[in-house]
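Encode chain A's predicted structure.
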Amino acid sequence: MTEISVLDLQNLRHLIGGFETTHCKMQDYAHEAQDPQVKQFFQKSAQCAMESKQQLMQFLQ
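Encoded structure for chain A:
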């Protein structure tokens, strides 16, 4: 694996944190949603945010 610069590492950390925050918020919104379509939208958004976070985490392995 090639080395990651400090700036790239900071950017990855920032993006990963953002996706983690988005995941948590979308889960909370899904939990509070009454409409099934809205609930499904937020659940899917939470899942996408988690998948994006996991993909970025792979760069750190």
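Residues 4 and 35 are 44 Å apart (CA to CA).
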